[in-house]
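Lecture 7 notes: from sequence to structure.

We start with a single chain of 324 residues. Read the sequence below before looking at the structure.
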Amino acid sequence: MATNHHDTGYKELFSHPEFVEQLIDGFAPSEIAALMDFSTLEQHNGHYITPLYEEKIEDVVWSVNATWEGITQRVYLYILLEFQSKVDLRMPLRMMHYVASFHDHLIKNGVTTARKGFPPVFPIVLYNGNQPWTAAEDVYEMVSPKPPSFLRAFQPHLRYYLVEERSYSDEELAERNSPLSGVFGVENAKVGHEALQKAVDRMLASIRAHPQKERMDRIITAWFKRHLKWLGARVNVDELRSLMEDRDMLADNLESWAKRERQEGVNEGVQQGRIDTLRKLIILKFNEVPVWADQRLEQASQEELDAWVENILKADSLEAVFND
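Now the structure, written as tokens:
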């Protein structure tokens, strides 16, 4: 899986127990979250070499005490960060290998033995791609054709829980009202300064409502600066110290960025208009625009285009038009 700013930024977010709690409490089934004592969260090493893919997995692993039927058991939360541009239809197979590798890791490190058995694992795929998630969520669904009833018991089964950011509306994220839901809102914000600013304001509101707002502000500000760089926003992120304290400065910077983008769009439109006009004049006078001439038009500066418009009025050949 290709590493990008999402992998790195989200790994940083989920190195903090508050965000793991917000993920489970806000986006996992409520009956699962109700079993867990989030004050017992403990982070574990999450890098394993799988026998199938021989790759380093971008994942986060935590364990937490969960109680059901009067028994308290340690449950492992296996969070896979899946931020590729395309949906990997092999995900059920990958997850089966990842969980198996994790269980093998627990045995090799003396956490358990084959005789004692494996602790429960809750596998989660966190996906923020633009394409809808289309991969199966249980490896059994990849068995094709479906086996007859007497063979079904012998097929592999492993289901992961999918958190697909794009599937949540702004209203659904607002209902959760957590810093993490605010992060998802910023990720989902449509291109444009206004949409981004609204998402940032919603994220800020969730930070201010958090009991540890200073800590949340510090963590998310670091993430957001990385996100702005990835967006290509020409905003001086070094000046951004706190989303809560520097909100007005950030809003001004985003507005300035938007104005520059709009002006550049106007300039590009004017430039393209000159090219189209000159192309029409060449066709009227010389019947066609050869490939070499078209390439020169597309690569020309504003000054060159102005000169060529003057040249075409008196040029006897197409070559003379481009005689600088």
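The CA atoms of residues 6 and 83 lie 7 Å apart. Keep this in mind for problem set 3.
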